[in-house]
Amino acid sequence: MSHRNCFALWLAATATLTGVPAGAQSSSPQDVPNIAQLEQQAVQLADIEAVKRLQRAYGYYLDRSDWDNIVDLLTDDATMEYGPAGVFVGKAHARALLYAIGYGKSGLRPQQLREHVQLQPVINIAPDGQTAKGRWRAIVLLGQFHEYARWQTGPYECEYRKEHGIWKISKLHWVETFTVPEQGGWKTKMTQSNVADRKLPAPDHPSSFVYDPWPAVSLPPYHYAGPDAIAPLHPAPVPMVKLSASEAARRIAHLKWQVDRLDDQRQIEILQRTYGYYVDKNLWEQIADMYTEDGTLEIGGRGVYVGRARVLQYLRWLGKPQDGKLYDHTQIQPIVDVSPDGKVAKGRWRALVFGGAVGGTSVLGDCIYENEYRKENGVWKIAKLHAYFEMYSTLEQGWAEFATPNTRPEKALPPDLPPTSVYDMYPGTLVAPLHYENPVTGQPVYPATPAALPTASAATDLTVQLSQLQQRLGRLEDSEAVENLQNAYGFYLDKWQWDAATALFADQGTLELAQRGVYVGKAHIRASLEDAFGPQGLHQGEVSDHAFYQPVIHIAEDGRSANMRVRELSILGKYGVNAYIGGGTRENQYIKENGVWRIKSDHLYLTFLADYEKGWSHGALPAPGPSKSLPPDRPPSVNYRPFPAFQPLPFHYPNPVTGKWVTQ
User: Fold this and answer.
1) What share of the chain in percent tops pLDDT 70?
2) Phi, psi at residue 80, to the nearest 5°?
3) Where along the chain do its domains lie?
4) CATH says 473-619 is which class?
5) Is the confidence at residue 663, as pLDDT, over 90?
6) Can you tell me the distance from the alpha carbon of 85 to that of 215, in angstroms, rounded to the nearest whole number?
7) What's the first-to-final CA gap in the chain, in angstroms?
8) Which residues on neighbouring strands pair with residue 118, listed in sequence order?
C-alpha cells in the first residue's frame, strides 16, 4: 500500500474525533502529520537528553573517584581509552584501569581534588535510534593539598548504545590537550605523566590515536563533518499507520505528555542558566523574581533564607555592581529530573566561578547546585537553590597551597534556618549529595504513578493537536540543532580549522569578536579568523581552546531563525612564551537555509582577558581594537570596555518568569 493511501486510511479512521462536520472541507492527507513519525522524533529527542545525562553523570562520578558507578554506565563490551594509555575492553578491564588510577580504591584520598567538568556536547542520534555519538570537552581541576595543583583539558569522542531501552556508554575516548601545573599554566608542561605515581594495567590494544603530549598539538578526529552532519537527528522514514479514533486519541495524548516533559526540561534549563547570567551582573531583583513566594536560598554554609523577600534581602546584601569587580557564575553540566505530572523538578548543576577585584586576588571557585523547581500557573520557578561549595582558591597562590574555608552564618544578616549540613570544602570532605541514582542501574527520581500519566481527550480536533505537536517538536529539535552547531564551531576554532568553521555561517553571516569590528560574508569571516589567530592548520606549541556552555536558545515561531546567549571560556597561549585566560558572552543569531541551520551573526562580548600568571586582578588586558592589517567591514556595533570596567550586556530575551526586560 502506498504511503499516501496509509495516510488517507489513518485520516478516515480518526474522522469521527476530528470535529469536522458533514460536508465541511477537511484537511488533505498531505496536511496531516504522521503520528508515528512524530512519536519517533519525540523518542529521539528524549534520547539526546538521556545521552547528555549519561555523560554528565559520568563526570560527577569522576569527581568522587566513584569507579563502580562509572563501570555501571558501560556496555559489557565497552572500550575505555584515556590519553596514550591504550584501549581497555570490557567492564572488568575498565574497572581495573579506574581502580589503578584511584590508587587501588574507590573514593577520593584525603585532601584530594578531582573536578571533571563535562561540557559543549555535539550529540548525533543514528537513524535507527539505537546508537549515538558525542563529542564533549573536559575541563579538569586536579589537586592534592600541599602536593600539586593541575589543569587538564581535552575533548572526548564517545559512542553510546541503547540496550533494552536504556542508554549506555559503549566507547569512552579522551584525548589530552594538556595537563599542566596550576602555577604557570599552559605556558609550561608536565615533567612527567599525570599518573606516573600509579601502576596501570596493560591495555588490550594500543592507542587508536597516537599523538605526542603538550606542547605538541594534535587533531583528534571529529565524528561529524559539515553543517548537514551536525544535525542532531537523521530519523528513518516511518510508514503511516491505520488507527481507530480511540487509539489515535490515546497516542496523541501520550505524545503530548512526552513533548510537555521535554519542554519542561528546556524551560528549567533556561531558568537556571539565566540565574547565572543575572548573578554576573548583580541583577538581584530579577533573580528574586524567579523564586516561588516560599522559595529558599542556601549558599555555602551561610544557612537558609526562606521566602522571596528574604532571598532578595540576602542578594542585595552581596552588594551593587561596580567597576573593578568580577563576578562570573557559570551554570554547566545540568542533570534535570521532571516529575511525570510536570509540577515539580530537581536539578544538579555545576558553577565555575571567576571572581575577585582589581588589585586583590583572582578568585577561582567550583560549586555544585542541588536545586528544586515548581511550576506555578504554567511557569517554572526556583523553589529551592542550594549551592554546595566544593573549592575556592586563587590563581595567585593556587589550590595546592591555598583554599578558602567554607562560609558560616553571617552575624550581620542571620539566616532564617541553620545550614542543612555543616561541612568543610576542599581540602576537607566534599559532600554535595546526588538527587538521582545511577542512570543505568538506578530507579527514577519520580515514580510514574497512574494519576500522573496522560489520558486521552475525546473533545478536541486531533488533526489540530497533531499539527501543534509537530510544531513544538520541530522547535525542540531546532534548539538541539542550534546548540550542536555552536558547539561544533567552537571545536573547529580550537584547532584553527577556518574552512570548517566558516562553512557553518550563512553566506552573508557576520562575525564580531569583542571590539575588532564586524566582518561580513564567509570570505571576510575566514580572513578575520586568520588575521586574529594565525593561519589555518595546527600550531605546534600553541593552545587556542574556545569552550562554549550555558546556552539559552529561543527559536522563532516559524522555525526559520533563532537567538542564543552562550558563555565562552578562552584558554590561549604559546608554550614558553605566554598564557592567557578569558571569559565572554556571545549573543548570536542563526538562520535556517534549505532546512540546515547556519550562523547568521556571531558576536562575542568580552568580559575579561588576562595574563594567566598575573590573573585578572593584576593582569587584566584591554579588548583588541580593529585590525590595521585587515580593517573590518563595519565598526564595532557596541562600544564598551571589558573588566576591570563593569559593562551591562544586552539580553535577547526577558526574565523567563516575569517577562520583564533587563535594565541597568
Assistant:
1) 95
2) -130, 125
3) 38-230, 246-437, 473-619
4) alpha beta
5) no
6) 18
7) 63
8) 138
